[in-house]
Design goal:
- The complex is a heterodimer of chains A (about 170) and B (about 60).
- With about 170 residues, chain A is mostly helical.
- The relative contact order of chain A is 0.12.
- The mean pLDDT of chain A is about 90.
- Chain A is globular, with a radius of gyration of 18 Å.
- In chain A, helix 3 runs parallel beside helix 5 (about 145-170).
- Chain A has a two-stranded antiparallel sheet.
- Helix content of chain A is about 75%, strand content about 0%.
- Chain B is about 65% helix and about 0% strand.
- Chain B contains 5 helices and no strands.
- The relative contact order of chain B is 0.22.
- Classes of the chains: A mainly alpha (about 170), B mainly alpha (about 60).
- The interface of A and B includes residues 38, 41, 99 and 104 of A.
Chain lengths: ~170, ~60
């Protein structure tokens, strides 16, 4: 069973990378997989990754204490995933508001539509999971919780990009 | 410190921030940040801007 799990995870990672590559070549104006950033954006992105990492570490630390006092038992092993999502949220929000998230060759509108679709798919999976009673089992959150987190992540991403777009319009 | 020399040189060339950014190969926000003095550009970017605006480094980036 163990080697099958490894195979499934490996295949899932390859599939995710493949979908990511196809998607990025689709929403990039020059149809290339690699997103280009200028020198200021690269510096800001470096800072955003640093803050994201710190946020993830703090979230992990809080989670550890919550587990110690039995306050986060309902999260099960998905608590660590929550910490990762917190880190990603901080990283992308900082990068977006420092104009370092959207690359020089990225079509912002296409990117936002793509991310909104991913959020929508995850909301749908969450709703199906809740309807089937799969969200909580024995007082512990199950896989639909991951869909819920992903839907929140992508919805916040789209909202951040929308707010930044409006702020830029005002500045212009 | 605001870079008013860059702003006026760009305006003299009748270029928008967006047009200058595209000509240099950076984002509009980067040009805006340089003009506002929020970002210190590398020498490569300074040279790129000077070439597009037909100015020297001293004319655009030297502080008196």
């Amino acid at each position: 069973m163990d080697y099958r799990l490894g195979f499934i995870f490996g295949f899932a990672i390859l599939l995710a990378l493949g979908i990511g590559a196809i998607a990025s070549s689709n929403y990039n104006k020059d149809k290339k997989i690699k997103t280009k950033y200028d020198e200021r954006q690269k510096i800001a992105r470096g800072k955003s990754f640093t803050y994201g990492f710190y946020a993830m570490m703090i979230a992990n630390l809080l989670l550890m204490f919550a587990h110690l006092f039995g306050l986060a038992d309902f999260l099960g092993s998905y608590g660590y995933f929550t910490a990762i999502i917190v880190g990603i949220l901080v990283e992308m929000t900082y990068a977006i508001f420092k104009d370092a998230y959207i690359g020089l060759n990225t079509n912002t509108r296409k990117y936002m539509i793509f991310m909104a679709c991913i959020s929508g798919i995850n909301i749908l999976s969450t709703v199906i999971g809740i309807a089937n009673g799969e969200m909580i089992k024995d007082g512990v959150l199950q896989t639909p919780y991951l869909n819920l987190l992903c839907s929140i992540l992508f919805a916040v991403l789209v909202a951040d990009l929308g707010i930044k777009h409006l702020l830029d319009k005002k500045e212009k | 410190m605001k870079n008013l020399k860059l702003k006026s040189a760009r305006a003299a060339c009748d270029m928008s921030q967006d047009e200058l950014a595209k000509a240099v190969g950076v984002s509009r926000q980067t040009i805006s940040a340089v003009e506002k003095g929020d970002y210190n550009p590398t020498i490569n970017l300074c040279i790129g801007i000077c070439k597009v605006l037909n100015k020297t480094l001293d004319e655009l980036f030297w502080e008196d």
